[in-house]
Amino acid sequence: MLLRLRQPLIVFLHDLLMVPAAWLGAFWLRFNLGEIPAEFVAGALRSLPLVLVAQALVFWSFGLYRGVWRFASLPDIMRILKAVVVGAMLCFTLLFAWNRLEGVPRSIPVLYTLLLFMLLGGARFFYRWLKDHKFNLSNAPRVLIVGAGRAGDMLVRDLERESDDGGYRVVAFVDDNRRRWGAEVRGVRIVGGCDTIPRMATELAIDLIILAVPSASVRQMRRIVELVESTGLPFRTVPQLSTLIKGRVRVSELRDVLIEDLLGREPIVLDNAAIRECLDARTILITGGGGSIGAELCRQIARLSPRLLIVQDNSEHNLYRIEMELRRRWPDLPLALVLGDVCDEVLVDHMMATRRPDVIFHAAAYKHVPMLESHARAAVVNNVLGTRTVARSASRHGVGRFVLISTDKAVNPANVMGMTKRVAELYCQNKNARSRTRFITVRFGNVLGSAGSVVPLFRRQIEAGGPLTVTHPEIERYFMTIPEACLLIMQASVLGEGGEIFVLDMGEPVRIGYLAEQMIRLSGRVPGEDIEIEYTGLRAGEKLYEELFHHRERLEKTAHDKLMLAHHRETDWKRLNQGIDELARAADGYDEALLLKTLEKWVPEYQTPAT
Question: What is the pTM of this model?
Answer without folding.
Answer: 0.67
